[in-house]
Design a protein that fits this description.
Length: 407
């Protein structure tokens, strides 16, 4: 589709692609063929699909599994529902970390979000494999290779449009809906439709279910079974995928060594829709659309007494928290070490404080890493794909290492 568009020269320089000139000698039996890879531009972005281009990825052994499926009788026969697609990537040099990391993708995308980036640099999976972790990558139930055969309940919605992606993810600075957007600098390329990197990013969007109840119940059904098979692990999630570590922390907290959430879309009781800035009611149980184990217990979310806190401005949104004489806690969720990482120029910098405030209110001691405070600046919502993505992976690695020291 965009094979002939060339990239701005400055971007080349930024990634250090200039100045190399090599040939690759490939042995074919007794014949030796010299493959010419001297034209470096031919290996940029989607062009790296060519057999003439070397991979930049870290070597691993790959196995895949489907976990948690069960039969449901139907007129057509017995169908399998609710299975999670799980890829297990084992470092070639052996596992050197005591606990695995399990990656949960966000909405509209799939496990590929943790692999190489749209401009074909190393993604999070490579970083963690290089650091000796056993890496698991999911396509959650109902998404991608975990698609649901339950066509009635799992109604579909679109993953994204180019316009949503531009305004919400790749060039929020142009629509300028919140002041911090003006500091967004880390997206590779122009971030707009027609740019080959943007187009590669947009190509990765796929439909997801509009039935959040069905989606969350199915992950809840299969997720703890997956953790029982793998054992205690660090769960790394992005965006709307952060509901999954919440559900698993609620249902089987002993298997969650830590919950690490990049721009988590679990804003209590509300959602910022469209490009991210218009509020609507959502997640009636606080962090989820399905029931969570409150103490004192409730059988209906309507028993929660809620109130709005703070002044709502474009740069710092108000939050919904519990009020009244009885503040109910979420003991299981609160027992799991939690960190949110928020991009300096992401829409989330305006409302992730609500996630932290509610976790504190329900009994947790969450960490909140505002990447800008560490000097990691200019990130939008897909920080794990942006130019400084491996610096952010290093922050996650450091947080995990700190947790392991406390165990
Ligand atoms: C080597 O190349 C020659 C000439 O192209 C060809 O005839 C022969 O089959 C090749 N041998 C192998 C092992 O590929
Ligand atoms: C070209 O080949 C050389 C030698 O094998 C290799 O070091 C270099 O990374 C290759 N460049 C690309 C872009 O694949
Ligand atoms: C589905 O499996 C059940 C249990 O094995 C069986 O009783 C039922 O007849 C099967 N359904 C169909 C449509 O074949
Ligand atoms: C943008 O970044 C500059 C430099 O780090 C900082 O001083 C400023 O407060 C930031 N602006 C916003 C709206 O976050
Ligand atoms: C959503 O899924 C739930 C649980 O599977 C089901 O009970 C409900 O009917 C579904 N709603 C829609 C609108 O499909
Ligand atoms: C919860 O309460 C609401 C409002 O009273 C009601 O509409 C709903 O059916 C209740 N849900 C359950 C599961 O009881
Ligand atoms: C943002 O609002 C919250 C209340 O919703 C408040 O606690 C916090 O201090 C505010 N942050 C800034 C940077 O103004
Ligand atoms: C709910 O909260 C309001 C405001 O704090 C308080 O006046 C009211 O008594 C609370 N209701 C219950 C049932 O706790």
């Amino acid at each position: 589709m965009h094979a002939t568009t060339s990239l701005p020269i400055l971007w080349w320089l930024a990634l250090g692609f200039l100045g190399e000139s090599h040939g690759v000698a490939t042995s074919l039996g007794n014949n030796v063929t010299l493959r010419d890879n001297t034209t470096e531009a031919n290996c940029i972005g989607v062009k790296a699909i060519s057999p003439d281009c070397n991979s930049h990825e870290t070597p691993y052994h790959r196995d895949f599994f489907y976990v948690g499926g069960h039969y449901e009788d139907s007129d057509l026969g017995n169908l399998t529902y609710d299975q999670i697609y799980v890829e297990k990537l084992t470092p070639v040099g052996g596992v050197k970390q005591s606990k695995p990391v399990i990656f949960f993708h966000g909405g509209g995308t799939s496990g590929v979000t943790w692999l190489n980036t749209p401009d074909n640099r190393k993604g999070f999976a490579s970083f963690f494999i290089e650091h000796g972790y056993l890496v698991y990558i999911l396509d959650q139930t109902s998404v991608g290779r975990g698609s649901e055969e339950n066509l009635d309940d799992f109604t579909l919605r679109i993953g994204s449009t180019a316009e949503i992606s531009e305004a919400g993810f790749t060039v929020p600075e142009l629509s300028d809906e919140y002041p911090q957007s003006q500091n967004h600098t880390q997206w590779p390329g122009s971030g707009q439709k027609g740019d080959p990197i943007f187009d590669a990013f947009e190509n990765a969007f796929i439909p997801l279910t509009s039935n959040k109840t069905a989606q969350q119940l199915s992950m809840r059904k299969s997720g703890c079974e997956m953790l029982r098979l793998i054992g205690s692990s660090f769960l790394v999630s992005h965006s709307i995928g952060s509901v999954n570590p919440i559900l698993l922390s609620n249902d089987c907290p002993d298997y969650v060594a830590g919950s690490i959430n990049l721009d988590p879309d679990i804003v209590p009781f509300e959602d910022f829709t469209g490009t991210g800035m218009t509020m609507s009611s959502e997640r009636p149980w606080g962090f989820a659309d399905v029931s969570l184990s409150y103490d004192p217990p409730i059988s209906n979310y309507t028993e929660l007494n809620l109130t709005k806190i703070g002044t709502d401005t474009a740069g710092n949104r108000s939050c919904i928290l519990q009020s009244g004489s009885t503040i109910r806690t979420l003991p299981n969720i609160a027992s799991v070490p939690f960190v949110a990482l928020t991009g300096e120029a992401s829409p989330h910098i305006t409302y992730d404080h609500c996630v932290i405030a509610y976790l504190q209110q329900v009994g947790g001691s969450p960490d909140w890493i505002k990447l800008g405070d560490l000097g990691i600046t200019g990130n939008g919502h897909f920080a794990h794909l942006e130019l400084n993505n491996l610096e952010i992976a290093a922050v996650v690695h450091d947080w995990i290492q700190e947790r392991l020291k406390l165990e």
